[in-house]
UniProtKB/TrEMBL annotation:
Topological relation to the membrane, as annotated: Multi-pass membrane protein
Skewed-composition ranges (Basic and acidic residues): 11-28
Residue ranges crossing the lipid bilayer per the database entry: 47-74, 80-99, 111-134, 146-170, 182-203, 209-229
UniProt-recorded name of the protein: Cation transporter
Native organism taxonomy: Bacteria, Bacillati, Actinomycetota, Actinomycetes, Nakamurellales
Length: 328
């Protein structure tokens, strides 16, 4: 069975199955999957506009940060660079995920493009936070002139840009996890813009430039923490861990409640990409169980209880002896 990569997995509900008769003959039939355009694709223009304004302002903030000597501005510019990567990755992933597979070898399509793009964003965010932290520590004890007026002005403009991006992405974030990730990234950067404004106010009101360094360190720590959290999610997907929020033991227990199922083994759960969970399992049934009804019941359990609509289920009548122990 080959999955058609022409669209998203969540546009329809389906289950793939194999059945084995008592004589070991394979029953059932394979089928293709046809999907409509993704929710992220529908809102692609929102991503494009948000990407354009964010990328443009990143250049402005970086230049002003270098001229003014504000480490808080530079740290926020680094954070905004991560936004640019996240939004750009969402755009590229939307395009790649819907690209037809002409090789015939990408049986899962190219949906993991966004996972690799997220990994790149993690490396960028960690690099930015480490650089800012090193610069901030190097400034300790030094008297540095910081342009507080430029900080507040650019910080306010950055806040405006982020708010526009939030409005653009909010609708799509309710329908697509891809857009939701970009939306949360921009939301977090909004806090960075607020931090720049606060740093500018403190420097101007107290005359102490070290406030700029303190705020910069706070932003660097904030970015690093978010990068680590995102990095763990990326590694969990690439490591094919069970999707977050789904316990394998719970899946086994629920499948065993299906009429005719005596045993469940060789259960595998993983996420192809965010919001696209996949499962395979072998169901051992009583001899008088109807394989068709067992498959229908198991499919409904996977969909209703765990929101997994792509499950490959193999039915084995008890005593058939066609499935030995697998050593991996």
């Amino acid at each position: 069975m080959r999955k058609n990569p022409a669209g998203p997995a969540d546009s329809d509900s389906h289950s793939d199955s194999q059945t084995h008769s008592p004589k070991g003959e394979k029953g059932g039939s394979s089928h293709g999957h046809s999907h409509g355009f993704s929710a992220a694709g529908k809102h692609r223009w929102r991503l494009a506009v948000a990407f354009s304004i964010t990328a443009s302002f990143f250049v402005v903030e970086l230049i002003v940060g270098l001229i003014s000597g504000s480490l808080a501005l530079l740290s926020d510019a680094g954070h905004m660079a991560a936004d640019v990567v996240a939004l750009g990755a969402a755009l590229v992933a939307t395009s790649i995920a819907t690209r037809p597979d002409r090789s015939g070898r990408r049986t899962y399509g190219s949906y993991r493009a966004e996972v690799f793009a997220s990994g790149l964003a993690v490396l960028l965010m960690l690099g930015v936070s480490v650089y800012i932290a090193i610069e901030a520590i190097a400034r300790i004890g030094e008297k540095v002139e910081v342009g507080s007026g430029a900080m507040m002005l650019v910080g306010a403009l950055g806040l405006l840009v982020n708010l526009i991006a939030i409005v653009l992405l909010s609708a799509g974030s309710k329908e697509s996890l891809n857009l939701k990730g970009a939306y949360l990234e921009v939301m977090a950067d909004t806090l960075g813009s607020v931090g720049v404004i606060v740093a500018g106010v403190l420097v101007q009101s107290t005359g102490q430039s070290w406030w700029d360094t303190v705020i910069a360190l706070a932003i660097a720590v904030f970015v690093a923490v978010r990068a680590i959290i995102l990095g763990r999610q990326v590694l969990a997907v690439l490591g094919q861990h069970a999707p977050e929020g789904i316990q394998p033991e719970a899946v086994v227990e629920q499948l065993r409640t299906v009429d005719g199922v005596e045993q469940v083994h060789d259960l595998h759960l993983w996420a192809l990409t965010s919001g696209m969970n996949v499962a395979t399992a072998h169901l051992v049934t009583s001899k008088d169980a109807d394989p068709t009804q067992v498959l229908a019941g198991a499919r409904q359990v996977m969909l209703d209880k765990f929101e997994i609509d792509h499950a490959t289920l193999q039915v084995e009548p008890t005593g058939s002896g066609h499935c030995g122990e697998i050593n991996w």
